[in-house]
Design a protein that fits this description.
- The complex is a heterodimer of chains A (289) and B (375).
- By secondary structure, chain A is an alpha/beta fold.
- Helix content of chain A is 36%, strand content 17%.
- Chain A has helices at residues 8-18, 55-64, 85-94, 115-122, 136-139, 160-175, 184-195, 240-250, 263-284; strands spanning 2-4, 25-30, 43-48, 69-74, 99-104, 142-144, 150-155, 207-209, 219-221, 232-233, 254-259.
- In chain A, helix 8 (240-250) links the parallel strand 10 and strand 11 (254-259).
- Chain A is elongated, with a radius of gyration of 22 Å.
- Chain A starts with a strand and ends in a 5-residue tail after the last helix.
- Chain B starts with 13 loop residues before the first helix and ends with a helix.
- Chain B has helices at residues 14-28, 40-56, 72-82, 152-161, 178-184, 214-223, 230-237, 258-265, 267-276, 280-286, 305-315, 319-330, 336-347, 363-374; strands spanning 31-35, 60-65, 89-94, 98-101, 110-113, 166-169, 196-198, 204-206.
- In chain B, helix 1 packs across helix 2 and helix 8 packs across helix 10 (280-286).
- Helices cover 40% and strands 9% of the residues of chain B.
- A six-stranded mixed sheet of chain B has the order 3-2-1-6-8-7, with helices on both faces. In chain B, strands 4-5 form a two-stranded antiparallel sheet.
- The chains are: A alpha/beta (289), B alpha/beta (375).
- Chain A binds chain B through residues 53, 55, 62, 82-83, 85, 92, 125, 128-129, 170, 174, 177-179, 182-183, 185-186, 189, 263-264, 266-267, and chain B through 2-9, 215, 236, 239, 241-243, 298, 303-304, 364, 367-368, 371-372, 374-375.
Chain lengths: 289, 375
């Protein structure tokens, strides 16, 4: 079964109910930034995501996982490459038992094709080589508790001089791109635009930025945030997966974003809107809690 | 690239299925010949075929085309397989002269293995009971690529074409080489059998292990108590990934990476190889380096892959081969994405086009265009 968007208590309840199926041992795969701990009498082994493909686990687990084992894949969609070796290794484990529970916070990382990774976990082989289809959401035991994320824009004024500086910076980045990755242009511009937002930072509020360049106690970096809270976003994380992790960690459903009229912020906003539309389309066609 | 092959589990295991295929082949063909390389797949294949031959009290050919520049462990494995059921084995160990591409040296771009008159340089002596002269009609000999001359696949083709009504067994597995599998299994090669391809003179290539996975192979080797090449153990101990663990040739454009670990695994083989052919130390040092043989990082003194390609073409030492590249690249798009792949071909002497170029607009330029429009 696939269960999306549940909290710890809800996940515990589902596992408790599932253990009545004569389960002798539980193998729980999790990602290191989101360690889990479940309480029940049954024997349980926790395996960290990066250990899935390690030889020291691989052959032992292949021997130990049997038809009366339950495998929990708890937040293991960590890369968008569906053929990643680590997923293939996981499929070998999952093939050895019919008892599988897949938990994930969001149904996708970025594109709807990501959902196929979860289906591959749930039904190894059945969907191999197939592309995403909304019909699949109805064909398997999938239940979703939506996290409807939205963005609230907090306007930041920029002067004409700022705009001129920004445009000069942009032209300079393109002119000196050389053999560098072109995605470094928007990333650098976002930091540049972020610097212009410094003047609106208020000491009584909590903020998050891509790094610690502001040297302010109330502006944290994404790496520093490890608990629930409400943060105003100065720059978004350039990796969608890390941004999703941030939302999962903080529990935020409203992103308050400091927004200028510079072109980079328009790009950020429209990319967010596109991601949200893909997410909402999946929510709209899934069976909901 | 994501494989589009779809494995469907049925109520039968791969060993039973492979045994049934063996029975079928032995029922249908009087002459059976197994191609072995010393790797894990052909070890399993040879064992399954020899068991069937032994059961029927028949003799089958065990064919090994010796490239000379191979691991010592490969030779040990070949000897083991050829002596496993001597009463059922016709030893077809070929040690004939043919050309191999050497990807590690631009000056020494080709190795003529078992070259006449160079006995003192050979990696090892020939086997006393090996086949040392081409046993087919030379006037009908075929060559795929005249630029390269008589090569590995020509030796294979001519050997197979010289045999009539023979079932050649090959250890090809679909998951290992999906593209090749797609090509060979398109149509039935014999009667209604899809896991085979038709050859000349009533012969057929059969792939009885086509549906085996990596772990099936190792389980069989373990369960049957078979020996396997020591290289696998070295690679395993070294912590190499599942995809990297393979016993391959040592010098061609897809396998030169093996040279990085060779001195550690088989110092004597490395030493002999150094004396045998140029470029081996280059392969050892730079086999996994992004700047040199893999052509992933542009040298600092050049501004673009196109410039690098033009430089490599200009300075390519073998003029006859340079023309092959010039002609080929004239048909391709002239962008940095394509040029990087052309650089890789040039550096690895890939005049045979074994590392095909993905000829399409540069995705990087597309991204730059997108950002220019949006920002």
């Amino acid at each position: 079964m696939i269960r999306i968007g549940l909290n710890q208590r809800e996940k515990q309840k589902i596992i408790d109910e599932y253990l009545n199926n004569g389960i002798k041992k539980v193998f729980c795969f999790y990602y290191k930034d989101f360690p889990v701990k479940y309480k029940f009498d049954c024997n349980i082994e926790y395996v960290e995501y990066s250990d899935i493909e390690m030889y020291k686990f691989f052959y032992r687990l292949l021997e130990e996982i049997s038809s009366d084992s339950l495998i929990i894949m708890d937040g293991c969609m960590r890369t968008q490459n569906r053929s990643e070796l680590i997923y293939n290794c996981a499929h070998h484990y999952l093939n050895q038992t019919p008892h599988r529970i897949i938990f994930e916070y969001f149904p996708i990382i970025d594109t709807k094709e990501d959902f196929m990774i979860l289906l591959d976990f749930d039904q190894p082989n059945k969907y191999k080589g197939k592309s995403f289809d909304y019909l699949f959401l109805q064909q398997e035991g999938i239940l979703v508790k939506p996290h409807k994320v939205r963005m609230e824009l907090l306007p930041v004024e920029v002067t004409e001089a700022d705009k001129v500086k920004y445009e000069a910076k942009r032209d300079n980045l393109f002119d000196n791109l050389g053999s560098k990755d072109p995605d470094t242009v928007p990333r650098t511009l976002q930091l540049f635009a972020g610097d212009m937002k410094k003047r609106v930072i208020k000491p009584e509020l909590q903020y998050v930025a891509r790094n610690k360049r502001f040297k302010l106690e109330n502006v944290l970096s994404y790496d520093d945030i490890n608990k629930k809270g409400d943060y105003i976003v100065i720059d978004t994380h350039y990796r969608r997966l890390n941004m999703n992790d941030f939302l999962k960690t903080t529990g935020m459903e409203k992103i308050k974003y400091l927004c200028t009229t510079l072109s980079i912020d328009s790009v950020i906003i429209s990319e967010f809107a596109e991601w949200k539309a893909r997410l909402d389309a999946i929510y709209a066609q899934s069976n909901l809690y | 690239m994501q494989s589009m092959l779809n494995q469907i589990y049925i109520n039968k295991n791969v060993i039973d299925a492979a045994r049934e295929r063996m029975t079928y082949i032995f029922d249908e063909f009087e002459n059976v010949c197994v191609s072995i390389s010393g790797g894990k797949d052909s070890t399993v294949l040879a064992h399954l075929a020899l068991l069937e031959a032994n059961k029927r009290d028949r003799r089958i050919g065990i064919f090994f085309l010796d490239e000379e520049v191979v691991y010592d462990s490969t030779i040990a494995q070949i000897k083991y397989l050829m002596s496993m059921y001597p009463e059922n084995t016709v030893k077809l160990w070929f040690q004939i002269e043919f050309n191999l591409t050497n990807s590690t040296s631009i000056k020494d771009g080709q190795l003529k293995c078992w070259e006449r008159g160079k006995h003192d340089l050979w990696m090892r002596s020939k086997e006393p009971d090996s086949i040392q002269y081409k046993p087919w009609d030379r006037t009908k000999e075929t060559i795929r690529d005249k630029n390269k001359g008589f090569g590995f696949y020509d030796a294979l083709d001519n050997f197979q074409d010289s045999r009539k009504d023979t079932a050649f067994l090959v250890g090809l597995r679909a998951t290992e080489s999906p593209n090749r599998w797609r090509a060979v299994s398109k149509n039935p090669g014999y009667k209604d059998v899809y896991w085979c391809t038709k050859r000349k003179n009533g012969s057929v290539n059969f792939y009885p292990l086509y549906d085996w996975n990596f772990h099936d192979i190792w389980k069989y080797i373990y369960d049957a108590g078979l020996k396997y090449s020591k290289i696998y153990d070295y690679q395993y101990k070294k912590g190499m990934g599942l995809q990297e663990i393979r016993v391959s040739s040592l010098i061609h454009e897809k396998s030169f990476k093996a040279l990085v670990e060779l001195p550690e695994f088989e110092p004597k083989t490395y030493d002999k190889l150094m004396k045998r052919i140029g470029g081996i130390a280059v392969g050892h040092i730079y086999g996994k380096d992004n700047k040199m043989l893999r052509a992933r990082t542009l040298p600092k003194n050049l501004k673009s892959w196109r410039e690098y390609r033009d430089f490599l073409l200009e300075t390519y030492p073998d003029v006859s081969k340079r023309d092959i590249f010039v002609k080929r690249y004239a048909k391709y798009l002239d962008n940095n994405y394509v040029a990087r792949q052309e650089c890789r071909q040039l550096i690895l002497n890939d005049y045979e086009n074994n590392l095909p170029v993905d000829n399409k607009p540069d995705p990087r330029e597309e991204t730059i265009k997108k950002w220019r429009e949006l920002l």
